[in-house]
Amino acid sequence: MSPVREDFREILRLVRPGSRVLDVGCGDGELLELLIREKGVDGQGLELSHAGVSACLARGLAVVQGDADNDLDDFPSQAFDYAVLSDTLQSVRDPKHVLSELLRIASRAVVSLPNFGHWRVRWALVTQGRMPETRALPEPWWSTPNIHLCTLADFTDLCRNLDLRIDACASLVAGRPARPIDPAKAIENWRAEQALFLLSRRTEAPAPAVQNDLFAAPQFIDPAARRMGRRRARR
Questions:
Q1: pLDDT classification of 6: cutoffs 50, 70, 90
Q2: What are the backbone angles phi and psi of residue 107, rounded to the nearest 5°?
């Protein structure tokens, strides 16, 4: 059996047992199968490629063929507890719309993405003047599926623009365990090769404070949410 990807391992730790989960861009169904087997989730996948859909069906998974940019609109609101988008946001045409739709159809969204602000990316641009190829971005520029690369700072700005709350965040660097981070800190925009976010709407109640479910570390609440909590406490 091949080793479990580190982001899959963290998603597995994060998702609560028995939840309703939609895996968007589920590929061959490896993560969805893992969630069903280990957490007993009621899982469904959405996958664009014929090969991916066929692989999911061969695993006995519930999957529909579709495009995240267009077909998320067809899902009813709050149909799932979690919508998972693993290493896919950078390859969709309209990331803002897709992210907003994830948190319309689910109470929580789990999103992982490569960080274009990582120091190896910056070093390649400065020293070589070329689009970088790294472990998180292994394809050359002319064949990569990534069309909307961003940094941690860019992504947190988008979350703020959509009025989303960052309930937890972890840095992923190949070969190392996931590390809980505050993505608002500039140093993390240099250090994180990839990042995994747990998101919710600000109008929703915060995720229960069961710390072991949030990357086995104290929960990160973004500064705006923290200030709002202080104002309420003074009243």
A1: confident
A2: -75, -30
Distance between CA atoms of residues 14 and 8, nearest Å: 10
* Residue 200, phi-psi category: left (phi > 0), alpha (psi -120 to 50), beta (remainder): beta
Using a 10 angstrom Cβ sphere, with 0-12 exposed, 13-18 middle and 19 or more buried, the burial of residue 136 is: buried
Helix (H, G, I), strand (E, B) or coil at 42: strand
Closest CA to 156 of 191, 217, 115: 115
Of the candidates 223, 170, 161, the one whose C-alpha atom is nearest the C-alpha of residue 194 is: 170
Look up the pTM and report it.
Answer: 0.81
Amino acid occupying residue 224: A
Rounded Cα gap, residues 82 and 74, in angstroms: 17
Please, are residues 114 and 137 in contact by the beta-carbon 8 Å criterion?
A: yes
In the chain, the largest separation of any two C-alpha atoms, in whole Å, equals 57
Q: Give the CB-side neighbour count of residue 177, counting CA atoms within 13 A.
A: 6
- Do 61 and 33 form a contact (C-beta atoms < 8 A)? yes
What the block records as the tokens of 25 is: 């861009």
Look at strands 194-201 and 164-172 and give their pairing.
antiparallel
Residues 6 or more apart whose CB falls under 8 angstroms from that of 101 comprise 68, 72, 73, 75
- For 120-166, what is each residue's pLDDT tens digit? 888 888 887 877 666 666 676 676 666 678 899 999 999 999 999 99
